[in-house]
């Protein structure tokens, strides 16, 4: 990363506008202590000390983008319920545009409740509906997307496999974005990547890529290239950016690949790192950097957030600091 680029990202000439379409959810945390087992069953009795709610799913991508400095419009479908209203409040607090969110009476807002004693998670309770959207709701969402898509720099799809991204709706979004000259960056889920056909970037992790290519595992660069070729045939995407957890990431096109290893760092928790990578790539592409530069910066962003417990965000200033510090460290090998 040269000095001119580092100077530019500190004072970019524009604030990127990014449309995030995705599975919006609430992460609900219950903290307590446990000193005895229940007489009713061999389970701990948790005395609750505190509770909190934060944005989860695509909301974590939104938080990462806002932390970096983007102006974000959020689109999705949530329940017209208490947690849905809480989700809207959290997004409003982030300063995002929320008119593109549909509140649906017949849908439940996705909530993931985690019960923790100290730093140990005892159980996670999921409340969700993963049915595909009815056609009238898909149409209503597309109308809202079309009303704003010309005003944004990039479109990000954050798929958590909660029923939003049916193959038909996903293709409608990608085709609409391409018709408007907008690049689409996708964090995929599931084993069928054909619905992402035509995307500019698809960003799977190693496990997701292996499942999409229908191979057991990826342990070598050759295996990764083979799996990528399968996905390129399925999707005709311009690029795959494959994240490898604490080992870094690889940018692949049908003709080339660039490995970006993570600098040596202490890893506490990789939760949410994929969302950080997605957001960071989108942000830096949005201010005019090329893909390799954007991914290099996203690599540093991921190295920062995996040092923290739970989902975390970072800033441009922290990324620049990490770049300076990483020059003194050894590089971990890829695969």
What do these coordinates show?
One of its GO terms (molecular function) is kinase activity. InterPro entries: PfkB_dom, RfaE_dom_I, Ribokinase-like. Pfam families: PfkB. 36% of the residues lie in helices and 26% in strands. With 335 residues, the protein is α/β, with parallel strands linked by helices. Strand 6 and strand 7 (120-127) form a beta hairpin. The longest helix is centred in the C-terminal third of the chain and has 15 residues, at 221-235. The two termini are 23 Å apart. The mean pLDDT is 90.
Question: What would you say about this model in short?
Answer:
The protein has a single domain (3-25, 55-326), classed as 3-Layer(aba) Sandwich (UDP-N-acetylmuramoyl-L-alanine:D-glutamate ligase).
Instruction: Label the CATH architecture.
Output: 3-Layer(aba) Sandwich
- Give the helices and strands as they follow along the chain: HEEEHEHEEEHEHEEHHEEEHHH
Ends: how far apart? 23 Å
List unreliable stretches of 5+ residues: none
By CATH, the topology is UDP-N-acetylmuramoyl-L-alanine:D-glutamate ligase
Q: How many individual β-strands? A: 13
Largest sheet: 9 strands, mixed
Query: Structural class per helix/strand content?
Result: alpha/beta
Q: What sort of overall outline do the alpha carbons produce when their principal axes are compared?
A: globular
| Spatial order of strands in the largest sheet | 5-4-1-8-9-10-11-12-13
List the domain count as a whole number. 1
CATH superfamily: Ribokinase
Helix content: 25-40%
- Estimate the mean pLDDT confidence: 90
CATH class descriptor: Alpha Beta
SS summary, helix count? 10
What radius of gyration results from the CA coordinates?
20 Å
Beta-strand residue fraction: 25-35%
Pfam families: PfkB
Keywords: Kinase, Transferase
Protein name: D-glycero-beta-D-manno-heptose-7-phosphate kinase
Organism: Mucilaginibacter sabulilitoris
């Amino acid at each position: 990363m040269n000095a001119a680029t580092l100077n530019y990202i500190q004072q970019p000439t524009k604030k990127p506008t990014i449309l995030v379409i995705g599975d919006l959810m609430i992460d609900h945390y219950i903290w307590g202590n446990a000193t005895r087992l229940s007489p009713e069953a061999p389970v701990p009795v948790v005395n609750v000390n505190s509770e909190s709610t934060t944005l989860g799913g695509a909301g974590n991508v939104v938080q990462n983008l806002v932390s970096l400095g983007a102006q974000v419009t959020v689109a999705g479908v949530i329940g017209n319920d208490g947690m849905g209203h809480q989700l809207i409040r959290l997004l409003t607090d982030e300063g995002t545009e929320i008119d593109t969110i549909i509140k649906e009476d017949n849908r439940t807002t996705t909530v993931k409740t985690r019960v923790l004693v100290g730093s140990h998670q005892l159980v996670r309770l999921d409340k969700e509906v993963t049915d595909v959207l009815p056609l009238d709701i898909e149409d209503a969402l597309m109308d809202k997307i079309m009303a704003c898509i010309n005003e944004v720099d990039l479109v990000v799809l954050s798929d958590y496999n909660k029923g939003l991204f049916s193959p038909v709706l996903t293709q409608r979004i990608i085709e609409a974005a391409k018709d408007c000259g907008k690049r689409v960056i996708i964090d995929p889920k599931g084993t069928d990547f054909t619905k992402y056909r035509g995307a500019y970037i698809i960003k799977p992790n190693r496990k997701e890529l292996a499942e999409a290519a229908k191979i057991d595992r990826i342990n070598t660069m050759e295996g990764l290239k083979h799996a990528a070729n399968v996905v390129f045939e399925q999707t005709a995407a311009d690029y795959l950016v494959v994240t490898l957890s604490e080992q870094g990431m690889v940018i692949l096109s049908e003709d080339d690949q660039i490995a970006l290893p993570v600098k040596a760092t202490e890893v506490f928790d990789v939760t949410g790192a994929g969302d950080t990578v997605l957001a960071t790539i989108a942000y830096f592409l949005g201010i005019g950097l090329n893909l390799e530069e954007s991914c290099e910066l996203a690599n540093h962003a991921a190295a920062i957030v995996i040092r923290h417990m739970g989902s975390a965000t970072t800033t441009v200033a922290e990324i620049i600091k990490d770049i300076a510090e990483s020059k003194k460290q050894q590089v971990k090998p890829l695969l």
